[in-house]
Write a structure and sequence with these properties.
9 helices; about 220 residues; globular; Rossmann fold; 7-stranded mixed sheet; 7 strands; about 25% strand; binds S-adenosylmethionine; alpha/beta
Protein backbone atom coordinates (compact mmCIF):
# COMPACT_ATOMS: atom_id res chain seq x y z
CA UNK A 1 0.00 0.00 0.00
CA UNK A 2 2.71 2.44 1.10
CA UNK A 3 4.78 1.34 -1.90
CA UNK A 4 2.02 2.13 -4.32
CA UNK A 5 1.38 5.50 -2.64
CA UNK A 6 5.07 6.37 -2.96
CA UNK A 7 5.10 5.20 -6.54
CA UNK A 8 2.11 7.39 -7.36
CA UNK A 9 3.63 10.39 -5.61
CA UNK A 10 6.99 10.06 -7.37
CA UNK A 11 5.58 9.33 -10.82
CA UNK A 12 4.10 12.51 -12.27
CA UNK A 13 1.51 12.05 -15.01
CA UNK A 14 2.91 12.05 -18.54
CA UNK A 15 1.91 15.40 -20.02
CA UNK A 16 0.68 15.61 -23.57
CA UNK A 17 1.52 18.67 -25.64
CA UNK A 18 -1.83 18.40 -27.43
CA UNK A 19 -3.96 21.42 -26.45
CA UNK A 20 -7.21 19.44 -26.27
CA UNK A 21 -5.69 16.79 -24.03
CA UNK A 22 -4.38 19.50 -21.68
CA UNK A 23 -7.76 21.23 -21.77
CA UNK A 24 -9.67 18.15 -20.60
CA UNK A 25 -6.97 17.09 -18.13
CA UNK A 26 -7.66 20.23 -16.08
CA UNK A 27 -11.23 19.15 -15.39
CA UNK A 28 -10.72 15.38 -15.22
CA UNK A 29 -11.54 15.11 -11.50
CA UNK A 30 -15.00 16.68 -11.95
CA UNK A 31 -15.62 15.98 -15.63
CA UNK A 32 -18.76 13.87 -15.19
CA UNK A 33 -20.59 16.40 -12.99
CA UNK A 34 -19.58 19.23 -15.30
CA UNK A 35 -20.86 17.40 -18.35
CA UNK A 36 -24.20 16.83 -16.60
CA UNK A 37 -24.35 20.56 -15.76
CA UNK A 38 -23.62 21.59 -19.37
CA UNK A 39 -25.46 18.91 -21.31
CA UNK A 40 -28.03 17.40 -18.93
CA UNK A 41 -28.77 13.68 -19.02
CA UNK A 42 -31.50 13.22 -21.66
CA UNK A 43 -29.22 12.89 -24.68
CA UNK A 44 -26.76 10.69 -22.77
CA UNK A 45 -29.66 8.37 -21.86
CA UNK A 46 -30.74 8.22 -25.52
CA UNK A 47 -27.18 7.43 -26.59
CA UNK A 48 -26.88 4.71 -23.95
CA UNK A 49 -30.04 3.04 -25.26
CA UNK A 50 -28.79 3.24 -28.85
CA UNK A 51 -25.42 1.77 -27.97
CA UNK A 52 -26.93 -1.09 -25.99
CA UNK A 53 -29.25 -1.80 -28.93
CA UNK A 54 -26.22 -2.29 -31.22
CA UNK A 55 -26.01 -5.83 -29.85
CA UNK A 56 -22.79 -7.77 -29.19
CA UNK A 57 -19.79 -5.57 -29.99
CA UNK A 58 -17.03 -8.19 -29.74
CA UNK A 59 -13.53 -6.83 -29.11
CA UNK A 60 -13.84 -3.05 -28.83
CA UNK A 61 -11.25 -0.30 -29.13
CA UNK A 62 -12.39 2.98 -27.59
CA UNK A 63 -10.54 6.16 -28.56
CA UNK A 64 -10.51 9.19 -26.24
CA UNK A 65 -12.34 7.33 -23.45
CA UNK A 66 -12.02 10.22 -20.97
CA UNK A 67 -13.41 9.24 -17.56
CA UNK A 68 -15.02 6.09 -18.96
CA UNK A 69 -18.65 7.27 -19.17
CA UNK A 70 -19.13 5.35 -22.40
CA UNK A 71 -16.66 2.59 -21.53
CA UNK A 72 -19.09 1.48 -18.85
CA UNK A 73 -21.88 1.17 -21.44
CA UNK A 74 -19.70 -0.60 -24.02
CA UNK A 75 -18.55 -3.13 -21.41
CA UNK A 76 -22.12 -4.40 -21.08
CA UNK A 77 -22.22 -5.79 -24.63
CA UNK A 78 -18.53 -6.16 -25.50
CA UNK A 79 -16.36 -9.24 -25.08
CA UNK A 80 -13.44 -6.96 -24.22
CA UNK A 81 -12.95 -3.17 -24.25
CA UNK A 82 -9.52 -1.61 -24.75
CA UNK A 83 -10.20 1.95 -23.63
CA UNK A 84 -7.57 4.50 -24.62
CA UNK A 85 -6.84 8.18 -24.05
CA UNK A 86 -3.78 10.43 -24.16
CA UNK A 87 -4.65 12.19 -20.92
CA UNK A 88 -3.21 10.49 -17.83
CA UNK A 89 -5.61 12.42 -15.58
CA UNK A 90 -8.61 11.20 -17.59
CA UNK A 91 -7.29 7.64 -17.62
CA UNK A 92 -6.79 7.75 -13.84
CA UNK A 93 -10.43 8.80 -13.36
CA UNK A 94 -11.61 6.05 -15.73
CA UNK A 95 -9.50 3.39 -14.03
CA UNK A 96 -10.96 4.36 -10.66
CA UNK A 97 -14.51 4.34 -11.99
CA UNK A 98 -14.23 0.95 -13.67
CA UNK A 99 -11.96 -0.78 -11.18
CA UNK A 100 -12.92 -4.43 -11.01
CA UNK A 101 -14.65 -4.49 -14.42
CA UNK A 102 -13.14 -7.71 -15.78
CA UNK A 103 -13.54 -7.05 -19.52
CA UNK A 104 -12.03 -3.54 -19.61
CA UNK A 105 -8.38 -2.52 -19.86
CA UNK A 106 -7.02 1.01 -20.14
CA UNK A 107 -4.05 2.13 -22.22
CA UNK A 108 -2.50 5.46 -23.07
CA UNK A 109 -2.70 5.92 -26.84
CA UNK A 110 -3.06 8.67 -29.42
CA UNK A 111 -6.39 8.37 -31.23
CA UNK A 112 -4.79 9.66 -34.43
CA UNK A 113 -2.22 6.86 -34.47
CA UNK A 114 -3.48 3.95 -32.34
CA UNK A 115 -0.61 1.47 -31.85
CA UNK A 116 -2.47 -1.75 -32.66
CA UNK A 117 -2.14 -4.35 -35.39
CA UNK A 118 -4.32 -4.35 -38.51
CA UNK A 119 -7.70 -6.08 -38.17
CA UNK A 120 -7.48 -6.37 -34.36
CA UNK A 121 -10.97 -5.22 -33.38
CA UNK A 122 -14.64 -5.93 -34.13
CA UNK A 123 -15.72 -2.42 -33.11
CA UNK A 124 -14.00 0.95 -32.84
CA UNK A 125 -15.87 3.54 -30.79
CA UNK A 126 -15.25 7.20 -30.01
CA UNK A 127 -17.34 9.80 -28.21
CA UNK A 128 -16.79 13.54 -28.18
CA UNK A 129 -13.23 13.45 -29.41
CA UNK A 130 -13.39 13.55 -33.23
CA UNK A 131 -13.49 17.38 -33.31
CA UNK A 132 -10.12 17.49 -31.52
CA UNK A 133 -8.52 15.17 -34.07
CA UNK A 134 -7.41 15.05 -37.67
CA UNK A 135 -10.66 13.25 -38.52
CA UNK A 136 -9.76 11.79 -41.95
CA UNK A 137 -6.44 10.45 -40.60
CA UNK A 138 -8.16 8.96 -37.53
CA UNK A 139 -10.88 7.31 -39.59
CA UNK A 140 -8.31 5.75 -41.90
CA UNK A 141 -6.61 4.32 -38.79
CA UNK A 142 -9.99 2.99 -37.58
CA UNK A 143 -10.51 1.27 -40.94
CA UNK A 144 -7.10 -0.40 -40.71
CA UNK A 145 -7.74 -1.62 -37.15
CA UNK A 146 -11.12 -3.18 -37.85
CA UNK A 147 -11.61 -6.77 -38.92
CA UNK A 148 -13.59 -7.31 -42.14
CA UNK A 149 -17.24 -6.66 -41.29
CA UNK A 150 -16.15 -4.57 -38.28
CA UNK A 151 -18.14 -1.61 -37.06
CA UNK A 152 -17.21 2.02 -36.47
CA UNK A 153 -19.40 3.90 -33.97
CA UNK A 154 -19.02 7.65 -33.48
CA UNK A 155 -20.91 9.81 -31.01
CA UNK A 156 -20.38 13.54 -30.89
CA UNK A 157 -22.35 16.26 -29.14
CA UNK A 158 -23.15 19.06 -31.52
CA UNK A 159 -23.66 22.80 -31.34
CA UNK A 160 -26.49 22.51 -33.87
CA UNK A 161 -29.41 23.85 -31.82
CA UNK A 162 -31.71 26.89 -31.61
CA UNK A 163 -29.95 30.19 -30.79
CA UNK A 164 -31.18 30.48 -27.20
CA UNK A 165 -30.19 26.91 -26.35
CA UNK A 166 -26.83 27.56 -28.03
CA UNK A 167 -26.20 30.61 -25.84
CA UNK A 168 -27.08 28.71 -22.65
CA UNK A 169 -24.92 25.76 -23.71
CA UNK A 170 -22.00 28.03 -24.61
CA UNK A 171 -22.17 29.91 -21.32
CA UNK A 172 -22.40 26.74 -19.26
CA UNK A 173 -19.46 25.25 -21.19
CA UNK A 174 -17.35 28.30 -20.44
CA UNK A 175 -18.25 28.20 -16.75
CA UNK A 176 -17.60 24.48 -16.44
CA UNK A 177 -14.61 23.91 -18.70
CA UNK A 178 -13.05 27.34 -19.25
CA UNK A 179 -11.94 28.78 -22.58
CA UNK A 180 -11.36 25.96 -25.08
CA UNK A 181 -8.37 25.79 -27.44
CA UNK A 182 -8.98 27.27 -30.85
CA UNK A 183 -9.86 25.37 -33.95
CA UNK A 184 -12.66 23.08 -32.89
CA UNK A 185 -15.70 22.64 -35.09
CA UNK A 186 -18.07 19.83 -34.30
CA UNK A 187 -18.88 17.95 -37.50
CA UNK A 188 -22.43 17.50 -38.75
CA UNK A 189 -23.75 14.02 -39.66
CA UNK A 190 -23.14 14.45 -43.38
CA UNK A 191 -19.53 15.58 -42.82
CA UNK A 192 -18.73 12.59 -40.62
CA UNK A 193 -20.46 10.32 -43.13
CA UNK A 194 -18.32 11.73 -45.94
CA UNK A 195 -15.06 11.26 -44.00
CA UNK A 196 -16.05 7.71 -43.12
CA UNK A 197 -16.92 6.98 -46.76
CA UNK A 198 -13.59 8.47 -47.89
CA UNK A 199 -11.79 6.18 -45.42
CA UNK A 200 -13.42 3.14 -47.04
CA UNK A 201 -16.47 2.56 -44.82
CA UNK A 202 -20.06 1.90 -45.84
CA UNK A 203 -22.12 4.31 -43.72
CA UNK A 204 -25.22 2.66 -42.26
CA UNK A 205 -26.55 5.62 -40.30
CA UNK A 206 -25.54 9.24 -39.74
CA UNK A 207 -28.18 11.05 -37.69
CA UNK A 208 -28.84 13.65 -35.02
CA UNK A 209 -30.24 12.14 -31.83
CA UNK A 210 -31.38 13.34 -28.41
CA UNK A 211 -33.16 16.41 -27.16
CA UNK A 212 -31.82 19.78 -26.05
CA UNK A 213 -28.12 19.37 -26.73
CA UNK A 214 -28.16 16.82 -29.53
CA UNK A 215 -25.51 14.38 -30.66
CA UNK A 216 -24.37 13.06 -34.01
CA UNK A 217 -24.56 9.26 -34.14
CA UNK A 218 -22.73 7.40 -36.89
CA UNK A 219 -22.52 3.69 -37.57
CA UNK A 220 -20.30 2.64 -40.47
CA UNK A 221 -19.02 -0.75 -41.50
CA UNK A 222 -15.92 -2.20 -43.14
CA UNK A 223 -16.87 -4.58 -45.95
CA UNK A 224 -16.37 -8.33 -45.61
CA UNK A 225 -16.60 -10.68 -42.69
C1 LIG B 1 -14.54 15.70 -24.32
S1 LIG B 1 -13.56 14.40 -23.68
C2 LIG B 1 -14.61 13.01 -24.05
C3 LIG B 1 -14.39 11.85 -23.14
C4 LIG B 1 -15.36 10.69 -23.30
N1 LIG B 1 -15.22 10.06 -24.58
C5 LIG B 1 -16.79 11.15 -23.11
O1 LIG B 1 -17.48 11.40 -24.10
O2 LIG B 1 -17.20 11.30 -21.95
C6 LIG B 1 -12.29 14.24 -24.92
C7 LIG B 1 -11.23 13.22 -24.53
O3 LIG B 1 -10.40 12.99 -25.66
C8 LIG B 1 -9.06 12.90 -25.22
N2 LIG B 1 -8.20 13.23 -26.37
C9 LIG B 1 -8.06 14.41 -27.01
N3 LIG B 1 -7.19 14.28 -28.02
C10 LIG B 1 -6.77 12.99 -28.02
C11 LIG B 1 -5.86 12.24 -28.82
N4 LIG B 1 -5.20 12.79 -29.84
N5 LIG B 1 -5.69 10.93 -28.53
C12 LIG B 1 -6.34 10.35 -27.50
N6 LIG B 1 -7.21 11.02 -26.69
C13 LIG B 1 -7.41 12.32 -26.96
C14 LIG B 1 -8.98 13.88 -24.06
O4 LIG B 1 -7.88 13.58 -23.21
C15 LIG B 1 -10.33 13.66 -23.39
O5 LIG B 1 -10.27 12.64 -22.44
Amino acid sequence: MMNSLLKTASTPPIRSDKPWVRHWAKVAAHYDEKVRFVVGTATYDTLRQKLLAEGPLGDVLELGCGTGQYTRILAQTAAQVTATDLGEEMLAAARAKLAGQPNVSFERADAEAPPYADESFDTVFMANVIAALDAPKTLRACFRLLKPGGCLLIVNLTFKMPLLAYLVFGLRSLLAFGVPPRGRRDPLPHELAQWATDAGFRVETAELVGSGVKAVYVRARKAGG
